[in-house]
Design goal:
CATH superfamily: Vaccinia Virus protein VP39
Largest sheet: 7 strands, mixed
Order of helices and strands: EEHEHEHEEHEHEEH
Number of strands: 9
CATH topology: Rossmann fold
Number of domains: 1
Structural class: alpha/beta
Strand order of the largest sheet: 5-4-3-6-7-9-8
Number of helices: 6
Distance between the termini: 43 Å
Oligomer: single chain
Shape: globular
């Protein structure tokens, strides 16, 4: 068991659960969570992001397809005195209610690997993974004025990502270079009115999204 420290949050690890990593901390630093907001985190892993939100006064539900992650997130929340409801779910399959903010640190690597732990990073051939299911189900789960916060990578298929985001207003909250990729945290809001076609010819999420 590993123990990770993030400020005042103590996180117990599990070898079968995706641990807090550079993209996790980038996501935490990017989030603006207001007291009283209703927050859902999908793919919660250790629960560190959900605990961060709960400590800032949000009402938090978190979920993961990996039952060990769900149990770990619940234990970590209790250990940190944070009120977090943890459920086993595949995107929205076991989630009820509506939310001001939905968070997902996506499995964005363009690989196809099997196993519950591998689902934390395996995004399939295009790196989109469960992003289509998230974007399809999110509008009915968001409260008026609600938004998504997701993590994407320059390793993803840029054309595919642009197509998926064509119905959303996207804002880059933060961006960082890690080893062989650029990771971006995006805020997405459902686009009202007619949808524009996604921009073409761009090679990275950051350059493409700046045009949205």
């Amino acid at each position: 068991m590993a123990v990770k420290i993030d400020g005042s949050i103590r996180i117990e690890g599990d070898g079968e659960v995706y641990p807090p990593s550079e993209d996790t901390y980038l996501l935490i630093e990017s989030l603006e969570v207001r007291p009283g907001e209703s927050v859902l985190e999908i793919g919660c892993g250790s629960g560190i992001v959900s605990i961060h939100c709960a400590k800032r006064g949000a009402a938090v539900t978190c979920g993961d397809v990996n039952p060990r992650a769900v149990a770990l997130a619940a234990r970590n929340a209790e250990a940190n005195g944070a009120s977090v409801r943890a459920v086993e779910t595949d995107v929205f399959s076991n989630v009820e209610g509506s939310f001001d903010l939905i968070i997902f640190n996506l499995p964005y690597l363009p690989v196809e690997e099997e196993g519950l732990l591998a689902r934390s990073w395996s995004g399939g051939a295009d790196g989109a993974g469960p992003l289509p299911a998230l974007l399809e189900g999110a509008p009915s789960r968001l409260r008026p004025g609600g938004r998504l916060a997701i993590v994407v990578s320059s390793l993803m298929d840029g054309g595919r990502l642009g197509s998926l985001l064509s119905g959303w207003d996207a804002k880059v909250l933060s961006e960082a270079r890690f080893f062989f990729e650029t990771v971006s945290v995006l805020e997405l809001r459902p686009r009202t009115g007619s949808c524009r076609s996604p921009p073409t010819g761009a090679r990275s999420p950051s350059s493409r999204l700046s045009s949205l």
